[in-house]
Amino acid sequence: MSLKTLALRPAPLFLLGVLLRVVLLFYGMYQDAHSALKYTDIDYLVFTDAARLPSPYDRATYRYTPLLAWLLYPTTLPGFFSFGKTLFAVADIVAGYLIWGMLRKRGRAMESCGAFTAIWLWNPMVATISTRGSSEGLLGVLTMALLWAVEQKRISVAGILLGLSVHFKIYPFIYAPAIIWWMDDANLGKAAQGEDIPALARFLNMERVTLAVTSLATFVGLNATMYLISYGHDFLQHTFLHHVTRLDHRHNFSPYNVLLYLSSAEPSSPTGLRVESLAFLPQLLLSCVLIPLVMAKRDLAVSMMAQTFAFVTFNKVCTSQYFLWYMVFLPLYLPHSSMLRNPTLGITALALWILTQAAWLQQGYELEFLGRSTFFPGMWLASLAFFLTNCWILGIIITDGASTRRAPARKAHAE
Amino acid sequence: MRERITLIHSPEEGVDPAELVLEPARLKAPAIGAAREDRLTAALDELPSHVSLLLQDFQTLHAFTSVASKNNKNTPRDAHYFYQILDHSHLILKAYADICGDDEECRARARELNDASSLEFAYDAEKPVAKITAFWPLEERTLDITSSDGRRTEVGIMARGSPPSMEEHDIGLGGITLVLGDSKRPSPTLFKFAERHRSAEQLFQATFTQPTGLHPAIRISLSGSQAPAEDCRSYAFLTLPKTIFADRYQLHDNLFMASKNLTALRHASLPVDLEAPAYTTETWGSNILVELAPPSTTQEEWAVEVPLHLRYLEPSATGERDIHVAYPVVFWACPVEQGTNFAINPFDKVGLGYDDLFDDDTVYWHVTPQPASGGDGRLVTSITVPVVDEKAASWVGVGTAVVVGLGFLWVLWQLVRAQTNSDQEARAAKVEKKSR
Prior knowledge:
Chain B: This is Protein PBN1. Chain B: It is found in: Endoplasmic reticulum membrane. The complex is a heterodimer. By secondary structure, chain A is mainly α. Chain A has 22 helices and no strands. Chain B is α+β, with helices and mostly antiparallel strands. The chains are: A mainly alpha, B alpha+beta. Chains A and B meet through helix 3, helix 14, helix 15 and helix 21 of A and helix 4, strand 21 and helix 5 of B.
């Protein structure tokens, strides 16, 4: 047995994932204690400060659910500062376990499952983000758990997870239409209902109603709890309204960035209808309607990946932490991807994704650290190049996902 | 209402009391090289109604205008601060004239304030009185003052003197004082008071570390690290316009602060939004007090850095905008020597911004600011902030729309293609099924 094969067996696979995070955690503690340049992410200080306060919203720039601050309460105790980072790292590992389980269920060989799971578990970017204390890892485990619950047909569990993740970070609402659309008789493994039943009645099956009710109840219940028991308007403002009304003028990867900066500086534009007020249209049309419609029934995991990719690509603000939102789907997408079958395509896509990002980062560095006005044309063009690269990659993912044979449907026929 | 007019001349010069022309309500003095301070004190009910109505909203209001340099700064105190690069001396002059009403002598005095080098308006609701103080630098000047009814006018002509029992850091003044209309002749005066603000005989220069980027650090280079007295701590008080701010959360970690030769952030005014661009920020700006960390062994030269952050500014034709930041106030704060009473200093100045953050029994040893070499001599540091070029506007709107549109259409086309393929597949499957 080669070393590679050995490492991809479940025990070493997860052990190495854990080890990587333990090493990074301790390295982070060392750097924080000995250097003025901190390993810990600024956001982690926001969460832990918020956990200490009577209301988490007393901490400026805390824009999350109070659940997160409560979850991190132990960080306020002496000696437990790294509790949250450990929690986020554990979330990574659990997400990896769910990925591995879903790959196994697809009938893949042990070694192949290990190799694709390693893309997540051994990914230095993923491990660094969570051990630096960014909460995005929690979203990774939530979305994987949601997909797992749907695939296991544990509909109530899926509903609760969907409601919880939307409460946590809003964007997972894009998965609701995909999951609902996916839940037809064939995908649920049920016998097809007769043609005599009206289409609407056939559509509104028990499972779809259950998912809608449980997810809505969880979402509304959590929000009402947060609103009523303590934080009232602060909660609404910082957790939801802020994300809707914010003007993201600070430089980020989004193609809209320079446009938003320009228009934020002149609040009363005489042209009437502004481009950026329409920005949500292509974004939501793709991620909530068209992609689920075309892809969800064929391959739910790849549909969710494409939706997330579209949502992040067309978003009005885009930072590298958002990339984690779709990277968690990579192990489930790559096995059938043309980017893996055709290495030239795969390497070209990866190279373009990295190069356009690097071009933007270089412009960002000149602006942020050297004080050069690179907003236009350098940074603007780089963000557009990155955007077009992402659109191209999204096209590949869509083509791949839509060409997947409806495996569950075949299974239903076989029964 | 009362006014106090003080001339301070050098000990070598002086006014022969015989040369003073004292009429009951008028005093004339011959030319003398002296600095002059005028102070008008009016109770709230002596103020014109529009001024007193305005002041009712304030606990304290303190405005200071240094006219000579045209660089003015309202000195912050309590909850109400303003910081504007505006010359608002005309407001103080208008207030003075309004207080005078129909009193022509008083209005004449108000007009004299036009060429004062600094003007100060102070109101304290606890007293409640408003004070207008004007100052003229050392210059050859004559005196011709007339008092009027309802206004008590006191005049003092003094020089540095040495009353008995002078201690170190005491200032002694001696000369004559008189009250117009009351005094038949000038009465000799000799008194002393303790200096609250002293010179530490150290120098500093403030510059921004290069390159400034979007996170510039102001570097304060000092010429000595020796404390002027025992139990002193050194501080820098920064008054920042709203274009630049300090992140109070960043100035927290001990290692980070130590790496900048800082001890701690002792005060930061609120609110300070940590993200908003300058053009949507309504707060005037902010100020912070940082305690410095002088080297443990005395050094000739040392420096501290205060990390700051720029807000986004409005687009400009050049892709850049210059902002100006006033020099910080750098000083040692020390406990006062036993038995010192600052209250008897008739010229004591409070409400300078930082003094509210210390006990009343604090002595300030000031480090003398040195303007940057090659500059215009003002105590201001400037940085060039990168902003988006105005020319971008015509391209970015259309360009972004076109590119986003193209990207969207591409993805849309891929979706249509995928859907068509799967429809064909489905039809083929049906045909296959039927043909079986």
